[in-house]
Each structure stands twice: as structure tokens, then as C-alpha cells.
């Protein structure tokens, strides 16, 4: 993301490559169909520690009214073969290959800090906090490309409420797994590992903010942030921290991976804003993966009606 500016991308890098279907996941998915489990749907209670994190396992969910309508969905193969996940390489096609054997089960997420009820939840418990919903969201990467993704997840606010934040809690800090043995990128000084992100508490509690465990009806493939990742549709994609192990409620604005590395390029807020250029390129337009034309980028990625009020009175050219 920091390495190149959009004009430097070769066409071959913008065109999605073939899906690298994880053989293990493929077998798992095929197995599910084979035993005819509830018309290939799987309910969270049936997830065993050994199966709950495999991409390609069907999920049961309801469709949310908060989904974005009237947009063509980006195909599964594009969403899963054109990724940023620097723990598994800095090229878009690397995470699909390098994360193939990443072990995402067993997995626990710790919810801690300024809360009355700290929690350590496995994936099945997280899915019981709130029923799984499908949320179709436009996603805009700071590099100038975008996708429309049918995420499956739960509102982050359900998890936070269950932990009962104390009145001192003002921000939420997130952390990715630190495991250089499994994550080759963490053996290099690319970022200050582990990847960290943060939101203001009201942003985290906003109904549009979700923790995703799947996409296109199935559990997340490793390269997309398995087993659980953040999705905040009005912010640039890098806010969507992947493979989360810790969520801390804190008093002060927490550091974030890209802001620590390049504060003049990546701010804490990182709201999609066509009027605030990246110091090295314009943010006025974007290319939807699968299209050639450039589209105009929308303020707050098109979610201004729902989220602009969170920032009333703030100078968004300074709080970028
Ligand atoms: N989370 C972790 N842990 N590591 C990363 O390198 N990359 C971010 C974000 N989350 C990243 C991450 C960036 S730059 C983007 S654009 C999105 O993930 C990309 O998500 P996608 O590959 O699923 O589209």
C-alpha cells in the first residue's frame, strides 16, 4: 500500500488472478454437501473447533436491511485472490497462496480493558452473541480500487455491549495474531507487528460496523482475514483489521499500524473522502474490480446519510 502509487500498478496487478482454492477447504465444503447437512447450511452450534475456521463452510444467516442495494456483487474469485494481508506477502496474489495453511482453529478473541465483563470467546461463542447477518457493503481501498462484498457477520456493538464498557472507555483497539512462524511477513520489518487498528467508541458501536466471519455465504478464506475481521464500510479498507485476537476498550486514541508507519499519509480516522487527496495521489475516483472505467468516489463511501453525524463539527481535512 505504501510501496506503490496507483499509476505504478501494472494491468496484470489490477486484473484479479484465478482463485487459489485451498484443497483442504474444498474437501471440507464438499464433505458438507456429501452428508446433506440441512441443505448445505451449517449453524454455528454445529461448528467443532476443528471445522469452524475453514473457508468454504456454508453459514446460516439472515439478510440485513442495512445492506447496500442496487450494486453488482464482486465475484468470490476476485475477493479471494486480490488481497492485502501483509503478514502473508505484499503482492495482491500472495495471501491466497501463503495463507493456505494458516491455522485458524482453535481461535479465541479476548475482549478486555475498560469493561466490567472481560471475555475470551471462541468463534462459536461469538456467533451466538448475535445471529449472523449478511451485509452487502461497498469497500474502498486507499489505493484506489473498490469491491462490493456480501459479508456475513455480527454487529461489533453486540460484542462490546456484552462486555459492558465502563464510562471511561472512549476508544476500541484491535490486534491481529502475532505468530511469525505461521505468518512469514511478520519475519520482515514491513510494519510494526502485530497489525493494530482502532476506532472511536461511537464508530465501533455504529450499526454499520461489523465483525465478519464469512463472505458470499461461506466462512472467510484465510486470505480475507479468517477467522474474524473488522469491516467498517465508510472507511478505507486498511481499517478492516484481519485475524483479530484482541479487542480492548481504552481511554485514549490507540495507535494504528499504518498511522505509526506513515502518519502524514494515513490518519486515525481514514474516512473515505474524495476531497482529501492522499499526499501522493488523488482520492477523487476509484476503479471497481472487474471494470475498466473509473467511478467517482463518494463521501464516506456512499454511507454519509448514516455516518456523517459522527463527525459533525470536525475538520475532516485535518482529521483524515
Ligand atoms: N489486516 C492485517 N492484519 N494485515 C494487513 O496487511 N491489510 C489491510 C486490511 N487489513 C491488512 C489488514 C488493507 S491495506 C486492506 S485494503 C484490507 O485489509 C484488504 O482486505 P481484503 O484483502 O480482504 O480486500
Could you describe the 3D structure shown?
The chain has about 325 residues and is an alpha+beta fold. It has one domain (about 45-310): Oxidoreductase, molybdopterin-binding domain (Sulfite Oxidase, Chain A, domain 2). It contains nine helices and 13 strands. Strands 1, 4, 5, 8, 9, 10, 12 and 13 form an eight-stranded mixed beta sheet that branches. The chain has a five-stranded mixed beta sheet with strand order 3-2-11-6-7. A hairpin with a 4-residue loop joins strand 4 (about 135-140) and strand 5 (about 145-155). The longest helix is centred in the N-terminal third of the chain and has 12 residues, at about 25-35. The structure holds ligand MTE. The site of ligand MTE has 17 residues, from loops.
How would you concisely characterize the structure shown here?
With 320 residues, this protein is an alpha+beta fold. The protein is built from nine helices and 13 strands.
What's the tally of helices? Answer: 9
Kindly report the average pLDDT value: 87
Largest sheet: 8 strands, mixed
The CATH architecture term is Alpha-Beta Complex
Amino acid at each position: 500500500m505504501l510501496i506503490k502509487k496507483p499509476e505504478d500498478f501494472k494491468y496484470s496487478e489490477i486484473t484479479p488472478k484465478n482463485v487459489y482454492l485451498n484443497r483442504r477447504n474444498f474437501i471440507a465444503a464438499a464433505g458438507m454437501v456429501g452428508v446433506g447437512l440441512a441443505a448445505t447450511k451449517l449453524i454455528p452450534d454445529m461448528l467443532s473447533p476443528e471445522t469452524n475456521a475453514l473457508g468454504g463452510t456454508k453459514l446460516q444467516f439472515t439478510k440485513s436491511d442495512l445492506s447496500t442495494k442496487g450494486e453488482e456483487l464482486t465475484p468470490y474469485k476476485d475477493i479471494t485472490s486480490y488481497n492485502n494481508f501483509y503478514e502473508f506477502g505484499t503482492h495482491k496474489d500472495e495471501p491466497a497462496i501463503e495463507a493456505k495453511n494458516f491455522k485458524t482453529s482453535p481461535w479465541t478473541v479476548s475482549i478486555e480493558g475498560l469493561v466490567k465483563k472481560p471475555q475470551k470467546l471462541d468463534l462459536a461463542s461469538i456467533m451466538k452473541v448475535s445471529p449472523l447477518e449478511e451485509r452487502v457493503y461497498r469497500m474502498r481501498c486507499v489505493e484506489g480500487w473498490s469491491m462490493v462484498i456480501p459479508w456475513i457477520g455480527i454487529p461489533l456493538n453486540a460484542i462490546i455491549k456484552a462486555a459492558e464498557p465502563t464510562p471511561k472507555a472512549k476508544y476500541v483497539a484491535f490486534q491481529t495474531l502475532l505468530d511469525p512462524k505461521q505468518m512469514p511477513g511478520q519475519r520482515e520489518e514491513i510494519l510494526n507487528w502485530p497489525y493494530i487498528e482502532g476506532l472511536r467508541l461511537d464508530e465501533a458501536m455504529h450499526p454499520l460496523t461489523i465483525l465478519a466471519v464469512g463472505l458470499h455465504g461461506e466462512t472467510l478464506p484465510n486470505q480475507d482475514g479468517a477467522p474474524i475481521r473488522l469491516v467498517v464500510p465508510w472507511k478505507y479498507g486498511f481499517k478492516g483489521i484481519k485475524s483479530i485476537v484482541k479487542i480492548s476498550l481504552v481511554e485514549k486514541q490507540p495507535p494504528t499500524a499504518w498511522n505509526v508507519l506513515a502518519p502524514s499519509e494515513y490518519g486515525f480516522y481514514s474516512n473515505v473522502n474524495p476531497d482529501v487527496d492522499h499526499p501522493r495521489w488523488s482520492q477523487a475516483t476509484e476503479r471497481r474490480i472487474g471494470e475498466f472505467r473509473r467511478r467517482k468516489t463518494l463521501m464516506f463511501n456512499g454511507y454519509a446519510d448514516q455516518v456523517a453525524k459522527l463527525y459533525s463539527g470536525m475538520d475532516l481535512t485535518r482529521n483524515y
